[in-house]
C-alpha cells in the first residue's frame, strides 16, 4: 500500500510517500480502506517534534479518515466488512491507503455523508463538542463566541452551538471566511483584523459580555478574551502557539474560568457521548462538514502548509 512516513522530525518535507506492506488486524481491531483522510494542525506539531508526545520513528501520521471496512479481527462484532465508517484514531496512522484501528474507533458513517465529510469528523467535531459541552458547559440561551470560526474546529463548533440553542458569534479574518461562518450558524460574524471588533462584540451583547469563548489561538487572544466575558464566563482554550501574558484581575470580578482541553483526556464514557452526538447530528442534518481543500496523498507536504495558513477555511483532506 501507499503511505506517508516520517523518518526524521522536521518540516513538511519530512513527509515521504513510501510503499509499505498491507496491514492486518489483531483481535478487537479493523483494517479500513481509506477514501479520504483528515489533516489536523496537531499532525504538524507531531511531525515537527514539538508535541508533548512524540511517536517512535519512523511513523505514519494521522488519526482521522473515512472509508470502508476491509477486514476485521477476532472478536469484532459491532462492524462488518464493507461497512462505511469514519475513524477517530489509528494504530498505524491514517495517512495511508489502509489503516488499522481499534474497532471502537470505527463509527458508522450515515448514508448522506460523503467520505470527505467523514474524514472531517474524528478530531475537529469531537474537539468542538468536548470544548462546548464537556469542558465549556454550554447551555441553551447562552451566548458563545467562536474565536477563529472558519477552520475545521470552528465551523464544527458553530454548527453544534446553533443546534443546541445558543446565540452564536464568530470571528474571521477574510470576507470569504466570514461568509462561510454565517452560512454555518453564526448569528453575527466579526472581523478580528479590525481594531474595533472587541467593542462591536460587547455592543452586540448590550455590554453584558459573552458566556463562553472557544479560543483557537490563545497566545494572541486570551488576554482580550477575558475582557469580553460575562459574569461566570468561561474561556476554553482549544489551541495556542506560544506563551501569553494576561491580567488575572480580569477573571476576578467576573468569577471567570480559563479551561484547557485535550481530546485525548476524554474518558471512554465521554468519548462515547461525543461520537453519539456526531452521528445524530449527521443524521438529522445539523452537522454539515465543510471541505476547504482536497489534496492527493502524495502531496501531503502541501497539505501541512495549507492547514497552518492564516485564514484557511474548512477542512483539508488527503485523497489516496
Quick summary:
The chain is built from ten helices and 15 strands. With 320 residues, the chain is α/β, with parallel strands linked by helices.
Structure description:
The chain has ten helices and 15 strands. The chain has 320 residues and is α/β, with parallel strands linked by helices. Strands 3, 4, 5, 6, 7, 14 and 15 form a seven-stranded mixed sheet that branches. The protein has a six-stranded parallel sheet with strand order 10-9-8-11-12-13, with helices on both faces. Strands 1-2 form a two-stranded antiparallel ribbon. Helix 3 packs across helix 4 and helix 3 crosses helix 9. The longest helix is centred in the C-terminal third of the chain and has 17 residues.
Pick out its properties.
Rossmann fold; Quinone Oxidoreductase, Chain A, domain 1; 320 residues; single chain; alpha/beta; 2 domains; seven-stranded mixed sheet; 10 helices; six-stranded parallel sheet
